[in-house]
Specification:
- The chain contains 15 helices and no strands.
- The chain has helices at 2-11, 15-35, 37-62, 67-98, 103-122, 126-156, 158-170, 172-183, 188-227, 232-242, 248-263, 270-295, 303-337, 343-349, 353-362.
- The chain has a domain at 299-363.
- The protein is globular.
- With 363 residues, the chain is mostly helical.
């Protein structure tokens, strides 16, 4: 009798107690993520890139290369790619700096012209315009500061990221065996499914992003060459890279070629409108064709959940959080799919509208 009453007391818990415990757990989890940001960001990128390079390492091992040599070659190839990209961008920027003597004077003339137009057309004098710009700058400081801090964290941790990549690739069997042993033999199939699905999702998503970036760089460069914008290829590549940064990247991406056109002597005011229109058209192609076919299909996260997760990731870890958040939620979705009690969470994160409609109509 005592055992029965004890069991009932254990099972029946007030909702507010359960909700409080869950909220406390979530708060503690995010507090730890924020506290350990500088440690966890390099580890996360290291794990992601290690999974991406794993097929290359396996291929080299199949060609009879020793494991350490295969890992070393993979890291050298990735470093060579990064170095070549940075060298190209640096060389192009250096050329711009060398030819930028008239940029400051041209920029001052443009700013004065815009201020005069606003004053004559809208009735705002220069003092009010400066006050509005100062207010906007003050409001943007926190976001820009977070953005720069996150970017600096990524750049300053580059060497550490490659060390983590090496460690993850070298000790991969230890990590895989750990998960199998922790969950026991009865859960072997589910653990195998989660690990394989997570690996495929991460590899597909990152490769998809790189392919998207390449396509966008080509489309942007061709468009800017046709329009006649100076340094079209450099701008095309930079805008393609910025496109990986949600929201803020698109804004900078459309302003950059317009600013370059005006600073290099462009006087036709219809050209900036053409640049903005073409960029918007390319973005529509990206959002409605390239991303769904090349990127989003690898993780199957609906747009509503993706937007919320990206904002949460940006608030937590800045630009790095925006980039990593989709991968983290994709892995969580895979875990939810393999745990029966959590499957409703996987469905609300997914994009299977047809399945949801069929289930709704069957009830």
């Amino acid at each position: 009798m005592e055992n029965t009453s004890s069991a009932l007391r254990t099972i029946v818990q007030p909702f507010y107690m359960k909700a409080s415990i869950v909220l406390m757990g979530i708060s503690l989890f995010f507090f730890i993520l924020d506290l350990l940001e500088n440690i966890l960001i390099p580890i996360s990128f290291g794990l992601m890139l290690a999974i991406l390079l794993n097929p290359v390492v396996n291929k080299l091992i199949s060609w009879k290369f020793p494991k350490l040599v295969a890992i070393g070659i993979s890291l050298l190839l990735s470093l060579a790619f990064v170095f070549a990209l940075i060298s190209f961008i640096y060389g192009q920027v250096e050329t711009i700096v060398e030819n930028s003597e008239g940029f400051e004077e041209r920029g001052t003339d443009i700013l004065e012209g815009v201020q005069a137009w606003i004053t004559n057309t809208l009735g705002f004098d220069k003092e009010k315009q400066l006050e509005a710009l100062n207010d906007l700058a003050n409001q943007s400081k926190d976001y820009i500061g977070s953005f720069l801090d996150s970017a600096f964290t990524i750049l300053s941790s580059t060497l550490l990221v490659f060390i983590y990549i090496f460690m993850f690739l070298l000790y991969k069997p230890l990590f895989v065996n750990f998960f199998f042993e922790v969950f026991g033999e009865s859960q072997q199939a589910k653990v195998q499914s989660v690990l394989m699905s997570s690996k495929v999702a991460i590899q597909g998503y990152v490769v998809g992003l790189m392919l998207e970036m390449l396509i966008m760089a080509v489309l942007n460069s061709i468009a800017y060459l046709i329009i006649g914008v100076d340094y079209a290829i450099l701008l095309g590549i930079i805008c393609a890279i910025l496109n990986l940064v949600p929201y803020i990247g698109g804004i900078i991406g459309v302003l950059l070629p317009i600013a370059m056109y005006l600073l290099t002597g462009g006087t036709d005011l219809t050209t900036p409108i053409v640049i903005a229109s073409v960029y918007t058209g390319i973005q529509l192609v990206d959002n409605y064709f390239i991303v769904p076919k090349v990127v989003s299909s690898k993780v199957s996260i609906n747009a509503f959940a993706a937007i919320i997760i990206i904002f949460l990731g940006g608030a937590l870890w800045g630009i790095a959080g925006m980039f990593l958040s989709i991968l983290f939620i994709a892995i969580l979705k895979i875990i939810f799919e393999n745990v029966e009690s959590l499957q409703p969470w996987a469905k609300i994160l997914g994009d299977d509208l047809k399945g949801a409609e069929q289930l709704k109509n069957s009830r």
